[in-house]
Amino acid sequence: MKSNSDFVQRQFKFHPDELSLKPLKAQVGGHVYMKILNDQYVCKPLNERELQFYQNIPKNLADHVPAFQGTLVENEDSSGNRGASSSNGPIREETSSSRGSSREYLVLENLTKDYKKPCVLDLKMGTRMYGDFATDSKRKSQRKKSTKSTSAKLGVRFCGSQRFSVSNNSFEMFDKYVGRNADETELRKLLEQFFTHGCSLRKDVINNVLGEICRMKKSLLDLEEYRFYSSSILIIYEGLIKEEKCASYNFSDAENSMDCDVFEMEAGEPNNFNVEKCRKEELPSSAVQMKIIDFANASFPSMDCDQSMHEGPDRGFLMGLDNLYEILESLL
Fold it and tell me: Taking the chain, what is the end-to-end CA distance rounded to the nearest angstrom?
């Protein structure tokens, strides 16, 4: 019988001496900085509650979250030399005799691995952004953020994006602060901007996302007592399109990269290209991924530390899915 370390060594396919951790360039939201492990996996700073969540994922939710690969401890001694150990179970504490520093990570599936130019959208879901364990001050500040943004009314808030601009051959990025000040109309413009790519609105991508929303909603309706407080959904599609398909057409002004300050004005202007010349069937029908992420504030039945249990499914998250569906459907 193979030991736990043998299993993870085979699973990760790396030797500690060949460890490579680099910043995750496709990260568009969140307040913790993630890394890429050997170009194959995403390493996220470990949170015990989030670790327990991934270790207890119910079967009907597994397809809607990134695959959990295990955990990783990155060690650095006083001379700056690095090493690593890995596990598919709880992290073992490092002893003080190492006289160095260590960082603990969750190791997750890299959702952007198979994309050449990943367009990524982070949407904060639900009406409540704090966990059951939050302090009074945290609850107050998060309620204020929800009320000022679209979270309280719609259950969905823009939390960051990156989209590949074909005309500029570069990524356009918006951070979470854009979404915190956006009202319902501005949220719609932000979503339209994200799905406007190349020479037209990517209706094929939007239709795929609508299908994913229906699948996700069906699964969440069966999850009694689960609460995804402050969780997001991540939507990814391929931003690289064949040049010969659209090279002869003018791109829309809204497709170009622009500063956040002028986004509201530019996004609503008429497009200056002929949509019929670049129909959606001429664009590649790329795979679309939509996953729920960030579970540091989640609540679920097997959490012994929760003082109160919740009844029924997460209505705030479901409301966000319903409103997102309506907004996207109105764009078609």
Answer: 55
Residue 30 has pLDDT above 60, yes or no: no
C-alpha to C-alpha distance for 126 and 304, rounded to whole angstroms:
23
What are the angstrom distances between the C-alpha of 87 and each of 35, 78, 156?
Answer: 17, 24, 35
How far is it, in rounded angstroms, from Cα 107 to Cα 109? 7
Burial degree of 319 (CB within 10 A; 0-12, 13-18, 19+): middle
Burial of 87 (0-12, 13-18, 19+ CB in 10 A): middle
> Which phi-psi region, left, alpha or beta, contains residue 46 (left: φ > 0; alpha: ψ -120 to 50)?
beta
Cβ atoms < 10 Å from Cβ of 44: 23
Look up tokens 């959904």; give the residue. Answer: 233
pLDDT digits 0-9 by tens, 7-29: 333 344 445 555 667 766 655 65
Contacts of 296 (CB under 8 A, 6+ apart): 47, 49, 50, 131, 230
Condensed to tens digits (0 to 9), the pLDDT of residues 110-158 reads: 999 889 899 999 999 999 988 888 899 999 989 988 888 899 999 999 9
Give residues with Cβ within 8 angstroms of 313, minimum separation 6: 220, 221, 222, 223, 224, 226
Spatial distance between the Cα atoms of 306 and 275, rounded to a whole number of angstroms = 53
Q: At a CB cut-off of 8 Å and minimum separation 6, what does 168 contact?
A: 256, 257
Q: Is pLDDT of 263 > 50? A: no
Is residue 215 a contact partner of residue 257, using CB atoms and an 8 Å limit? Answer: no
In which band, very low, low, confident or very high, does the pLDDT at 259 lie, cut at 50, 70 and 90? Answer: very low
Count of CB atoms within 10 A of residue 61's CB? Answer: 18
| Integer CA distances (angstroms), 8 to 15, 43, 45, 76, 107, in order | 11, 15, 18, 21, 11
What is the structure's pLDDT at 305?
53
- Residue pair 293/233 in contact (Cβ under 8 Å)? The answer is yes
Phi and psi at residue 264, in whole multiples of 5°? -60, -40
What pLDDT sits at residue 94?
37
The neighbour count for residue 12, using CB atoms within 10 Å, is 21
